[in-house]
Amino acid sequence: GHNGWMMASSALVLFMTLPGLALFYGGLVRRKNVLSVIAQCLGLMGVVTVMWWAFGYSVCFSNGGGVLGGLSHAFMNGVDGTPNPAYSQWVSHNIFFIYQMMFAIITPALIVGAIAERMKFAAVMLFCVLWMLVVYFPVVHMVWGADGLMNGLFNDHARIKAIDFAGGI
Crossing angle for the helix pair 34-51 and 121-131, nearest 10 degrees? Predict the structure, then answer.
């Protein structure tokens, strides 16, 4: 039941990106830029998925330090059907990986709405890759990582006791 709900929730967040955001932003731009905005959302989905698989999940959700985690889960190493006790007693590690990846995908896709019709495809991709590396991955680890600098729920040694349940930061 827990895994089923997490998979359904992952699908809902994925549908918020494609087709949700892609069509919403496509409706806000001029006719000549609709395909560009949809392509940017689709491209970000691919780029962020590869980043998340290669190293993003690992630096966000493995132990390593207050600002960034280590690379123990790079390329999904050790991410299998058993739960990761640092984050859940019931949800399998691979389902948690997928669920968190959906939020990693939608977050830079939200940026597309702010830069629609203003940047070329390659510039959007480059900016979002850099933004994921400099902002998203460190903030996720600091706030939600088990040994994060600002994890007020699970890290008794956190310097800042932030509690951010829904990404409000």
Answer: 30
CB proximity list for 105: less than 8 A, separation 6 or greater: 13, 14, 17, 44, 45, 48, 49, 52
pLDDT tens per residue, range 124-158: 999 999 999 999 999 999 988 888 888 877 777 77
Nearest to 40 by CA among 108, 137, 131: 108
What number of H helices and E strands is found in the chain? 7, 0
Neighbours of 22 (CB within 10 A): 22
Give the C-alpha separation, 141 to 15, whole Å.
25
* pLDDT tens per residue, range 63-104: 888 899 999 999 999 999 999 988 888 999 999 999 999 999
User: By three-state DSSP, how is residue 92 classified?
Assistant: strand
- pTM over 0.85? The answer is yes
Residue 163, beta-bridge partner list: none
Strand partners, 162: 151
Distance CA 165, CA 96 (A): 15
d(CA 150, CA 164): 10
